Amino acid sequence: MQDKLGRRIDYLRVSVTDRCNLRCFYCMPEDGVPLVDRGRILTLEEFARLIEAATTAGVRRVRFTGGEPLLRKGLPGLIRTVAGLRADLDIALTTNGVLLAGMAGELKAAGLARVNISLDTLRPERYAAITRGGDLDRVWRGIEAALAEGLAPVKINTVLVRGVNDDEVEDLARLTLDRALHVRFIELMPIRFAAGWAPDRLVTAAVIREKLAGWGDWEPAHPPAGGGPARYFRLPGAQGTVGFIPALSDHFCGSCNRLRLTATGALRPCLYHAAETDVRELVRGGASIAELADVIRIAAAGKPSGHRLDGGWRDQRSMSQLGG
Ligand code: SAM
Ligand code: SF4
């Protein structure tokens, strides 16, 4: 698929639930976000049909996210169905890792290729504070399980917040030395609950690179499989890499290849833009794969040129509802 700006669109991010077992302070309030009625959430069969339609339209990469996707019952079965659609489909998952240790083997067997695990700190008390109750040990077991099962490349997604965890840049980067872990620093975005304060706490990719520059002879590295918008560097002899995702300071909308499907069936060609198409009623109404594929092609063609994170417009949905 191509949009009107000539961007090739071949990547679909699918949020399979709005529920989460953590409460990261920049993503949602302590008591969570109001959950939508289960009846408004797509069933596994509806997800499978829409993903099939997306592959018919040209999608070759699918990433499951949420909310916390591992909370969605039947996810391994959905992955198995999706893996059976095309041999060349790249299937990935973004998770907080809490439930991963017990599921990594099953997910791999179902056809999942790789995982991104969100981890903002290596300090147990700080992890509990940032996530409001999370147990860092469980995430580590999840990371070990992902490595052991070959859900590779294993990427670690880190959001730095000034004054909260920006003193851990080096410790996090050090993870890449002995293990095939790819640590990516993602700029904090002023979305929903972080909208008011995020700009003041943003740690830009440039600042992080500067912090790391004096610490070793970084060399540009090939991106690990998955080829997203990050730029990667490696320390000599390191098994993994460090990547930067400058979503705000140097945004990559010009090369964005994504579409998103929310858990309630909204097809969004851009994470942060009002443009969206409701596909839930279509799939519930019995639309054929060809009809759904046409709707997906039209949504992709109209992909906005760039996000609206500059403050001119505010989405009422949180990152967990949009499918970060
Ligand atoms: N629960 C899963 C997880 O945490 O990996 C998947 C969904 S979560 C919304 C996806 C990613 O969005 C996480 O890596 C999280 O750190 C990131 N995120 C949430 N709010 C963000 C914000 N305001 N700015 C940047 N990243 C954010
Ligand atoms: Fe849950 Fe992920 Fe949001 Fe943290 S970032 S609260 S784990 S959805």
Named CATH topology: TIM Barrel
Derived from helix and strand composition plus strand pairing, the structural class reads: alpha/beta
What is the count of helical runs? 11
CATH class category: Alpha Beta
The helix fraction, in percent, is: 25-40%
Q: List bound small molecules.
A: S-adenosylmethionine, iron/sulfur cluster
Task: Describe the sheet with the most strands.
Answer: 12 strands, mixed
Instruction: State the assembly state of the protein chains.
Output: single chain
Number of DSSP strand runs: 12
SSE arrangement, N to C: EHEHEHEHHEHEHHEEEEEEHHH
Basic shape: globular
Strand residue percentage: 15-25%
For the terminal residues, how far apart are their CA atoms? Answer: 22 Å
Major sheet strand order:
7-8-9-6-5-4-3-2-1-10-11-12
Integer average pLDDT: 91
Whole-number total of structural domains: 1
Uncertain ranges: none
The CATH homologous superfamily: Aldolase class I
**Would you identify the CATH architecture?**
Alpha-Beta Barrel
Describe the structure.
The protein has helices at residues 44-57, 75-83, 104-110, 124-131, 136-149, 169-178, 198-201, 205-213, 280-284, 289-301, 319-322; strands at 11-15, 61-65, 90-95, 114-118, 154-159, 181-186, 219-220, 231-234, 241-245, 258-261, 266-268, 277-278. With 324 residues, it is α/β, with parallel strands linked by helices. The protein has one domain (11-322): Alpha-Beta Barrel (TIM Barrel), CATH 3.20.20. Strand 2 (61-65), helix 2 and strand 3 form a beta-alpha-beta unit. Helix 1 (44-57) runs parallel beside helix 2, helix 1 packs across helix 10 (289-301) and helix 2 packs parallel to helix 3. The radius of gyration is 19 Å and the shape is globular. The structure holds S-adenosylmethionine (SAM) and iron/sulfur cluster. The site of iron/sulfur cluster has 13 residues, from helix 11.
